[in-house]
From TrEMBL, chain A:
Function (record text): Allows the formation of correctly charged Gln-tRNA(Gln) through the transamidation of misacylated Glu-tRNA(Gln) in organisms which lack glutaminyl-tRNA synthetase. The reaction takes place in the presence of glutamine and ATP through an activated gamma-phospho-Glu-tRNA(Gln).
Domain Amidase: 22-478
Quaternary state and interactors: Heterotrimer of A, B and C subunits.
Name of the protein in question: Glutamyl-tRNA(Gln) amidotransferase subunit A
A GO biological-process term: translation
Molecular function via GO: ATP binding; glutaminyl-tRNA synthase (glutamine-hydrolyzing) activity; transferase activity
Entry similarity comment: Belongs to the amidase family. GatA subfamily.
Reactions this protein catalyses: L-glutamyl-tRNA(Gln) + L-glutamine + ATP + H2O = L-glutaminyl-tRNA(Gln) + L-glutamate + ADP + phosphate + H(+)
NCBIfam families: gatA (TIGR00132)
Gene3D superfamilies in UniProt: Amidase signature (AS) domain
Keywords attached to this entry: ATP-binding, Ligase, Nucleotide-binding, Protein biosynthesis, Transferase
Automatic annotation (TrEMBL), chain B:
Record EC number: 6.3.5.-
Molecular-function GO terms, alphabetical: asparaginyl-tRNA synthase (glutamine-hydrolyzing) activity; ATP binding; glutaminyl-tRNA synthase (glutamine-hydrolyzing) activity; transferase activity
Record-stated family: Belongs to the GatC family.
One of the Pfam families matching this protein, by short name: GatC
GO biological process, one term: regulation of translational fidelity
Keywords: ATP-binding, Ligase, Nucleotide-binding, Protein biosynthesis, Transferase
The name this protein goes by in its record: Aspartyl/glutamyl-tRNA(Asn/Gln) amidotransferase subunit C
Biological role stated in the UniProt entry: Allows the formation of correctly charged Asn-tRNA(Asn) or Gln-tRNA(Gln) through the transamidation of misacylated Asp-tRNA(Asn) or Glu-tRNA(Gln) in organisms which lack either or both of asparaginyl-tRNA or glutaminyl-tRNA synthetases. The reaction takes place in the presence of glutamine and ATP through an activated phospho-Asp-tRNA(Asn) or phospho-Glu-tRNA(Gln).
UniProt subunit comment: Heterotrimer of A, B and C subunits.
PANTHER family in the cross-refs: GLUTAMYL-TRNA(GLN) AMIDOTRANSFERASE SUBUNIT C, MITOCHONDRIAL
């Protein structure tokens, strides 16, 4: 079963090479053997998963036609709600919370009878680029256990890379799907803003968040994207996609743009620069034309993002009042177990004291810092200088892409300035951690679809390249990506 | 746009954000926030004189001829839904009586 993809799992199941339950059990065995070391999962859903697989097997036995995702063992980032299952966003403040309903992406996948093996680790509330900000555990890079898997969807990317699931879902606000995909040598797609419903995704920054697939192949990313995309009445920002991405064929080779600012900044690691050259060479061999373009506002993207994102996050996280989602027992400023069903001996506390205690003790440092930063940039006197200014720069960044897309069809860029860095290397220097998102942030600010694809198949340390497309033109980046991965085999 | 964050401002912001900070955290946050605010100075050099702020979405997508833009209010049909979620949403509240959620007095 080594390295099963959605496609090969489906074919094996359809041709009765194996049963769904055998594969699901095999994955739980692998998880039991390997995950203590790698640390990808926060919770498992074993009983349900196995009974679902058994039911599917008996349906197949009875001659039922199955969907391409039937029985597929998936891992889900732990900021996406599955009804009755634990959902923590890797935060203590939600440590005992269970999903009250299914996220729309989960509902859609359940309709296709996909199986959820468990929930994966992330930076708390998806705030981070290394998964080191999880309140529960450190996830390690499957290629090198001293290195981070990237983040914030580090658990999902590492689970796919270590073959602890067939494929996974992540979420991407400033690169949280693409950067860990690059670090772990897997494929990660951030869809266009509005392509996938966020209903049931724990909100971080609502004008930037998107859910997307993390997979072993571009073909799998397309299958999973097709299954979760589309208009949803529960997310007013979702869009009715008229484009069909499956079986779409490129008529002529497309022109790929290379933004000079992404390469001349000098911040690009040698290994990454070398890998990018290799990717460009491979794409040229496939007949794609390249053209140098300019995205003049690139260098302002990180500053712009780290004003807008905390502003939105400080608002979104106001809902964690220490009451609605369960209450923590706070002693000496550190939370211990939850005290369900009563005030836990803290009856004398006023409402305000509860808020201060619960939020002070329940949120981790990065989350608290970003909430305070968000409150600052939104406060009277600073709003114009920071928040409004950032929104204006955001328009310039998007206009820069609009101009570029008049000349080229797709833009190629690094996914990250470096390969996976060492655990502990950047966690004490937030600014250097923030700067590692420089190549992924612009697509979020402009709402564009972007995919990270591994440059080669057997690297020492993986490097991904990024293809950024026009809004709702996922089919173009996916088609080029599929051609690329076919040429590697 | 200088970076005028001092201890007093930080304490005030923590108050506004309803977050209790330890003294150790205050020191660290002050240092980190000063660094990041300092970095934001970079935006000063961008001329945004006649630029409208952009809050997000995929406006302008009509330029690419790919469907409608998110520029209008979006409504959904009113329907009485029996999602069975009400109980699920409140069952994890820390203290309840009948259909009421119990909290300490809001007005002191």
């Amino acid at each position: 079963m080594n390295g099963l993809t959605i496609k090969t799992f489906y074919e094996g199941l359809k041709n009765k090479k194996f049963k769904a339950v055998e594969i699901v059990e095999e994955y739980y065995k692998r998880i039991a053997e390997k995950d203590e070391e790698i640390g990808t999962y926060l919770s498992l859903n074993k009983t349900d998963a196995i009974s679902q697989a058994k039911k599917l097997d008996s349906d197949i036995e009875n001659g039922k036609e199955i969907s391409i995702l039937a029985g597929t063992p998936l891992a889900i980032k732990d900021n996406i709600l599955i009804k009755n299952q634990s959902v923590t966003a890797a935060s203590k403040i939600l440590s005992h919370y269970r999903g009250a309903y299914d996220a729309t992406v989960i509902k859609k996948l359940k309709e296709k009878e996909a199986i959820f093996l468990g929930k994966t680790n992330l930076d708390e509330f998806a705030m981070g680029s290394s998964t080191e900000n999880s309140a529960f555990k450190i996830t390690k890079n499957p290629f090198d256990s001293e290195r981070v898997p990237g983040g914030s969807s580090g658990g999902s990317a590492a689970a796919v890379a270590a073959d602890l699931c067939v494929a996974a879902l992540g979420s991407d606000t400033g690169g949280s799907i693409r950067q860990p995909a690059s670090f772990c040598g897997v494929v990660g797609l951030k869809p266009t803003y509005g392509a996938v419903s966020r209903y049931g995704l724990i909100a971080m920054a609502s004008s930037l968040d998107q859910i997307g697939p993390i997979t072993k192949t571009v073909e799998d990313a397309e299958i999973l994207f097709d299954a979760i995309k589309g208009k949803d009445s529960m997310d007013s920002t979702s869009i009715d996609l008229k484009l069909q991405t499956t079986n779409h064929k490129l008529q002529t080779p497309k022109v790929i743009g290379i933004p000079k600012e992404y390469f001349e900044a000098g911040g690009l690691d040698k290994e990454v620069a070398k890998a990018l050259e290799e990717a460009i060479k491979n794409l040229k061999n496939l007949g794609f034309k390249f053209k140098e373009i300019s995205l003049p506002y690139t260098k302002y993207a990180v500053a712009c993002y780290y004003i807008i994102m905390p502003a939105e996050a400080s608002t979104n996280l106001a809902r964690y009042d220490g009451l609605r989602y369960g209450k923590l027992q706070i002693t000496n400023h550190s939370p211990s177990q939850i005290s369900g069903g009563n005030l836990g001996g803290q009856e004398s506390q006023t409402l305000k004291e509860i808020y201060f205690d619960q939020r002070g003790g329940g949120f981790g440092q990065e989350v608290k810092k970003r909430i305070i930063l968000g409150s600052f940039v939104l406060s009277a006197g600073y709003y114009d200088a920071y928040y409004l200014k950032a929104q204006k720069v955001r328009r310039l960044i998007r206009e820069g892409f609009n101009e570029a897309f008049k000349e080229v069809d797709v833009i190629l860029a690094p996914a990250s300035p470096t390969p996976a860095f060492k655990i502990g290397e950047k966690i004490t220097d937030p600014l250097s951690m923030y700067l590692s998102d420089i190549f992924t942030i612009p697509a979020n600010l402009a709402g564009l679809p972007a995919i990270s694809i591994p440059v080669n198949l057997k690297p020492n340390l993986p490097v991904g390249f990024q293809l950024i497309g026009k809004p709702f033109c996922e089919d173009e980046i996916l088609t080029i990506g599929k051609k690329y991965e076919n040429c590697l085999h | 746009m200088s970076a005028p964050i001092d201890e007093k401002t930080l304490k005030y912001l923590a108050q506004l954000s309803r977050i209790k900070l330890e003294e150790k955290e205050e020191k660290k946050f002050l240092k980190n926030l000063r660094e990041i605010l300092n970095y934001f100075e970079l935006l000063k050099e961008v001329d945004t004189e006649h630029i409208e702020p952009l809050s997000g979405g995929t406006l302008n997508q009509n330029e690419f001829g790919t469907g409608q833009a998110i520029t209008e209010n979006v409504f959904r049909e009113f329907e009485k839904e029996e999602r069975g979620e009400k109980e699920k949403l409140t069952e994890q509240f820390f203290e309840k009586k009948d259909n009421f959620l119990k909290i300490p007095p809001v007005f002191e």
